[in-house]
Amino acid sequence: MIYLDNAATTKMYEELVDVYKEYGCDKFFNPSSLYKKSLEIALDIRKAKAELAEFFGSDAGEIVFTGSATESNNLAIRGAVKKNSKLVISAGEHPSVHNTIMALKNNGIECEIIPLQKNGLVDDQKLYDYVSKNKDVRLVSIIHVSNETGAINNIKELAQNIKRINPSILFHSDGVQAFAKIDIKNLGVDLYSFSAHKIKGPKGIGALFIKKGVRLNPVITGGGQENNLRGGTENVANIIAFSKAAKLFSQDYNYDQMLEYKTTFLDVLREKVKDIIISIEDNYNTAPHIISLIVPEIKGETLLHILESKDILIGLGSACSSNSKTNRILKSLGYSSKMAQNSIRISFSPDNTLEQIKTAAQTLASVILELKK
Predict the structure, then answer these.
(1) Counting beta carbons within 10 angstroms of the beta carbon of residue 275, is it exposed (0 to 12), middle (13 to 18) or buried (19 or more)?
(2) Angstrom distance (rounded) from CA 371 to CA 346
(3) Catalytic-residue membership of 111
(4) Which of 81, 313, 320, 365 is catalytic?
């Protein structure tokens, strides 16, 4: 099998399997209890958090574990909401941000969606103009790397300029697809979301960076875990596995390798198929591990299932909205509904090989040419 839907999820490191036996069967104690064995588990959690904080470039006390990046995004947004405040996002956000904003809007919270430019980045001038004219903006949330197109927003520059206009605004970024080691403090954000299963870690665990001094209301209340921001007994095995995955992935991920995969895939495909459309063709402002393609006159789902029959797995866009009739992000870039339905997403990981990339591109090209006969 050739798996090229790594922006949806990645294969977990096999080295992490033993973590679940260790903390599920041997060290199964509740970290909130007061006897020694539980205190040792609590210490393991603190160590894992410290290791993750080092990976993220933050302090351990600024990391809150959640059940997913979707929950992290919800905590950042819903936790920041105040009466009569305004929230601002881009038109390129993940469904966990976009749909959360829509739900809040239906409940009377004023929300603004800033359009995208043709290169897939948020229209920064329109963002700055809106924030300048609306002094009651509480939070701005801009995705770091688009999960659908790979467009990379300049989060550091955006955060700096927003803070210059209004220092009281909270700046959040969904960093799930920003695979490289991140220096959060250098980015200048207040809130930043992570996911374990996008870096070959387990599903069911995410994290939210919360800058020291930032106050949020909890979304899940309970026993006071995670600095009173996320109630519920901690999933110790997932936390430990997340920390180990981050360390392994930081060693395995190679930007130049991903760029080689991307360049090779497109070169092989374009050699045979001339009318292929790259939704955003800009290597400087796009992530090397994601390609968004549009194949005129052929539905993306058709290509997906034919390639599946040949043991090649690709995506259509956000795995969290694959059942949607049209691709919201591509429509926001100016593509018609029909063109958006003809899109597919190819995404790589360190598990892939150059030979797999060539084989997949050649197979896709042959399928397209056959369908166009």
Answers:
(1) exposed
(2) 19
(3) no
(4) 320
